[in-house]
Structure formats: structure tokens, C-alpha cells
Amino acid sequence: MDSHRPRSIEVDFFRGIVLIVIVLDHIPGGVLQHLMLHAYALCDSAEVFVCLGGYASAAAYGAVLSKKGEKAAHNRFYRRCWEIYRAYLLTAVLTLLSGAILQLLQLNRPMVDLTGWPLFAAAPIREAFDIAILRRQPYLSSVLPMYVIFAITVPFIVPLARKAPLTALTASLAIWALAIPLAKLFAIDDVSDWAFNPFAWQLMFVIGILCRERPVSDQFLESKPGRWLTRVAVTAVLAFAVVKLFILTQPLPGHLKQNLSIERVINFLAIAWLAVVLVRAGTIAKLAHKAPAVIKVGQTGLVCFVGGTLISLIVDTATPHSIHGLTHGLAALAGDLVAITAVLLLARFWKEWKGPTQPRAAVSGADCR
Known about the structure:
By secondary structure, the protein is an all-alpha fold. The protein has one domain. The chain contains 18 helices and no strands. Helix 3 (70-104) packs antiparallel against helix 4, helix 3 packs antiparallel against helix 7 (143-163) and helix 17 (301-318) runs antiparallel to helix 18 (325-354). The longest helix is centred in the first third of the chain and has 35 residues, at 70-104. Keywords: Membrane, Transmembrane, Transmembrane helix. The chain crosses the membrane at residues 12-31, 37-64, 85-105, 144-161, 168-188, 194-211, 232-252, 264-281, 293-315, 327-350. This is OpgC domain-containing protein. InterPro entries: UCP028704_OpgC. It holds the Pfam family OpgC_C.
């Protein structure tokens, strides 16, 4: 463990890819979403996003701690909590405003219902209060309240992960196992209100923190047990892909994702292990160097997430839904490409407006940044 390690371009690359995938996944009529992770696995981009969030949080905490001390590190994440909450409110406002405009123009009725505008218009004061206290989150903003909670806990989880990683993992697993009764205790067990049970999804966040603080060594990866785990991971990923493609072809119950079911965890861990292997081999760094625009998306995560919600709504509305066949497929593909381009341009504009940042380092040695 080294608190002076920089964040790597691999992390920013993965985050950029995931943010683009999230935008594509939220375009109901899109074509490329059928090629995304959820089409071949029981987990999806949400697990990757939350795990990388934990990783990046641990890296940021360590960087501030080493430069300015513990108090500054704590204050940084309390401010971050407020930043995420404001981003959540902005996302909610943009979503509801989009729904209002679509209803006024009588466009894309299914999306109007998804935005939650009809419910808000029927009882604006009550709905605004429920949104403000995180009781209800409009479409596309539901992951951010969970991040508000996680940001508060970073100053406590990261030091524990450094001093007693096994204790941190055991505690996280225990909370995950009790996630459903804990959610009921806090009255967030309804999928329509909380799309992500924070008591369950904290496991992904903690795993990300542990990956930063206690990375797997190169020696273990190259050892006999390490190679055996790699073979097991490959087998598991292929098996889950077969199950998803040929057996579980219909949408799965929402509570499995909401409460982070065990099969989702296992599938993600298998994919994550293979990702570590590719990172150590230098494959991801080579890809990242060839896609600097994607890295910029990863470096402007919160901005691209909020902007991506609006992009997905606009693209879905602009894509014709009355046509069918090849014409519809081409139109939907064009919409997907427009969405990707818009996210890349948003990241570029934001980076240029904010000014240059320090370059990211690639992974080397036994590190897994």
C-alpha cells in the first residue's frame, strides 16, 4: 500500500467506457445497448461504476491525506458529499424538466412516464420534498443518492481498509447479507423508490477501496493459484454468458439488481479478475493511450453522468419510433453514435474550460491502480 501512488489512465479509461455505456443503456430504442455487458452477463455497468467509484475515492482520500493531513482528507469528502447531492438535484431537475417539455410537445409518451413528471405535476410540493430527502429519485438519478451516503463513509472505510482489510471486507459482507432487512428497517425496500439498495451496493464500493489499498501482487498472479483463478474466471465468465444468452433471455426481476444478488457479485468478480490480468499485461494501457477522448470522459465523471442523462433523453426522443426494420436499426445506430459523440464533446469542453490537469500514470509492477 502506497498513499503516494497516482491514479492510472486505466482507471480513467474504464470509467470513461462505463459512463458512455450508461448513456447507451438508457436509450430504450438504441442498438448498441444490445452489445453491452448486461447482454452477456448477469451484472452490468452499474457494478463496474460503483467499484471504480470506491477505487477512485480511496485514491483521492490517500492523495489528500498525504499532502494535507487527515482533517483535510475528511473535509474533502464531506464537500464531495455536498457536490454529489447538488449533482443529484440538478439531474432530478433536468429529468423532470425534460418530462414536462416532452408532455407539452406531446412527444415520447413512454419517456414522459419514466421521467416521473406526471407524478410530480400532480403533487409538486410533496414530490419535491421526497426528492430532496432522497425518498424518491427521478429516472436516471437513482445512483447518486447512494453515492452521497458512500462519500460520507469514505473517511472511515479507507483507514479501516488500510489497517484491517479482512475486517473491512467481513463487515461489508455482513451488511450485504443483511441488506434486505436493513432496507426495510429504513423503509427503502421498494424498487420504485430506491433502485439501488445502499446496504447491498456498499459491497461493490468497499471492494473497489480494497483493490486500491490492497492490490493483488504480480507474484500471486503468476503463481500456480493465480493462474488457476484466472482459468476459473474465464470459465465462469463464459458460463454466465451462455446462461444469459440462451437460458435467462427475459428481463430478470428488478429486486436482483436492487439488492445486488450473489450471482451478480460472482459474475462481476470473475470479470474484474480478468480485467486485472489485462491491466497487468499492459493491454488496457495500450488501449487507453489510443483513446484519449474516453480518458477525458473518465476524468470528468460527475459532469458526464449528469450531462449523459440529458443526452440519452434527447437522443431517444429524436430517434423515430414509428419506423421498423433496417431503417429503424440504422436510425437507432445513428442516435447511439450521436450520443457517444455528445458525451465525448462534453468531456472535452469541460476539460478545456477547467484547464489542464496532471497526466495519469500507467500501471506498473505489482500495483493495480
